Amino acid sequence: MSISRKNDHLDIVLGGHAASSVSSGFERFVFEHVALPEINMDEIELGTEFLGKRISAPLLVSSMTGGPERAELINANLATACEELGIAFAVGSQRVALETDENAGLGRRLRDLAPSIPLMANFGAAQLNLGYGREQAMRAVDMIGADALIIHLNPLQEAVQPEGDRNWRGLFQAIEHLAGNLSVPLAVKEVGSGISAPLARRLFNAGVSIIDVAGAGGTSWAAVEAGRAHSPVQAEVARAFTGWGQPTADAIHEVREACPDALVIGSGGVRDGVDVAKAIRLGADLAGQAAGTLGAATVSADAVMDHFNAIIAQLKVTCFCTGSKDLQTLKEARLRSARDIFMPSAIR
After folding, report:
1. Whole-model pTM?
2. What are the structural domains, with CATH classification, of the chain?
3. 219 annotated as ligand-binding
4. Torsion angle, alpha carbons of 220, 221, 223, 225, to 10
5. Any known ligand binding at 64?
6. 309 belongs to an annotated ligand binding site
7. 5 marked among binding-site residues
8. pLDDT in tens, 177-204
9. Residue 56 assigned ligand-binding role
10. Binding site annotation covers 102?
11. Does 6 appear as a known binding residue?
């Protein structure tokens, strides 16, 4: 993967030209307001366990990074902020670092900056058809001292990208083989089009323990590739798919039903702490945010902390106003269809 391509991706996302043309679906749900919560807001517990470590809130930061210099700054700011906040951090693709001498900010210094939080390594599924296997997977893990490895699925992006890797034959078997030979948990995530319930079940049965649905409603990689297309025809092809995929809210609910024992991460268009709460209520164990974090990550670790402190505060207010003393109680809070709220004739 070229460094210039990674920089193009970063510029397009930061420029605000990468939004999906469909919604994440969270706006279709509203919590039933509890006017008499009978709990102490200061005692609400947002902490949970993830990858054998205690985190302060059910949040995962996924980064999208550019070339080495920018990636180093972004990753350092994210790692520093996540350590201070006590939340999990999943790095962007390590392909450049694995294939060149540039570690793109993905060296052991990352673990030094974040010694106590869950860290997740990451590369694309397509690389499993290009010579990657257990050796490269463990190199990615060891490179940052990660607690787990993510294999990301991005078939739509590869299909509309001029340089895309389009041979995906046999990748399920390759993922299954990797899951059985890693010394750390394996996660599989999409990048913005969602993972269906049947695929999630197959992956879980194959040994994948973490499913990040990464649904539609946030960054559209078809929009990103349209923005860097080499010709008007390529751009036109990519733009047709800016609304492709399952909305995140639907994907979370369906994957949870299909995989009751899996660890489910809900990402894709998570805007604020209210969306985080909805993701948890719909079945996610953690909520992830990438593009929404990126602007702050290019500024400073303090900016990242300010961003997530607001999300954590919003999540706590949501818990208070639903009478939820902790995340387990939040998973049982009453969630209603917004359509029923605003169209009373639809209520049965």
Report:
1. 0.92
2. 3-346 (3.20.20.70)
3. yes
4. 180
5. yes
6. no
7. yes
8. 999 999 999 999 999 999 999 999 999 9
9. no
10. no
11. yes
